[in-house]
Amino acid sequence: MSKSKTSSSSWLPQFNPGDRVEISSDEPGFRGSWFAGTVIRREAKNPNRYVVEYDKLYEDESGEKLLQETVDWVELRPPPPAEKKKVQLKFGDEVEAFHSDGWWEGAITAEHADGKFAVFFRSSKEQIVFEEKELRLRREWVEGKWEPPFEQRQREKERSQEKADSRPSKLVKRESSSVNNAKSQGTNSTKVGKGEKLSEPEAKPNLPEEVVKFTQGMQVEVTTDDEGFKGAWFAATIIEPSGEDQFLIEYKTLTNDDDTEFLREEIRTCHIRPCPPETIIVDGFKVMDEVDAYYNECWWVGVIAKVLINCKYMVYFKDTDEKITFKQADLRPHQDWLYGKWVVPSKALKQ
């Protein structure tokens, strides 16, 4: 049930000693974050790896010596340049929020009257309120270029708004009875110092209550903390409540060791969601659209990297740094279940 990691590109960046960079991490609790640092040197035996020093992470709790690590080139990128003009943030925007001395990937889920924004972090399933100065638009460093390009994003945004104002949306929603989906990971991190993992806030301000009540026989999608299944969801059926805030579920695509019956498991409510409403894409997907791809009997979150012929697409999966080709029939627009609502983060889609 796992995906194999393959090389997705022949392009390799060239970082020099002293270059300022941002560093990501696959460590549980730090996924989806970027911390500032400096390139110390390139490894002689493996030119694809670099020794870096963090600005705000330390080797131990004394905070006397900055942490140095050897990282793969895919975990490095240059600091993104400043926007040439002020960007108006809005609901649904994919952003990076400055928190605990690092930039964390999330999505704006609410605009407050005082000019602040609520940001939801999928990796930790929490929502935190930030000032506008603590946010920046999320971009991907792809083969030496920032995607989407800074000025191109503004032009696309203006064109999308013009189209939205001139004609009704082409997206049509209908209720779906089908389901398919996958899993994610978490343990303690070795990083110490000022940089800290995202932690649950004491209170979640202005959050609506979840209105969905899970009942016996209900078709749902579930995710777990199992390693190797980050960003994936499985189709399942609610069997019965199994204690406070959890249910016994039966998977639709996973079977037991004997392969004689479908696997059953107790799952916490926070790892269960209703089946997402089906969204029909009339004009196909575009580059940088966020999608769910059906692979190995579940749905994985990815981004359209390239539009191919015959209604096929190359999808990039950040967590495994790989690209896989899919038919359009095996893709759906990615949606997040946030406090009782379905949210489509992709800027190419408008419900």
TrEMBL record:
Residues 13-84, 87-143, 212-280, 283-339 form the Agenet domain. InterPro entries: Agenet-like_dom (IPR008395), Agenet_dom_plant (IPR014002). It comes from Linum tenue. Residues 1-30, 150-208 are annotated as: Disordered. Residues 150-176, 193-203 have a biased composition (Basic and acidic residues). This is Agenet domain-containing protein. The lineage of its organism: Eukaryota, Viridiplantae, Streptophyta, Embryophyta, Tracheophyta. Residues 1-10 have a biased composition (Low complexity). Residues 177-191 have a biased composition (Polar residues).
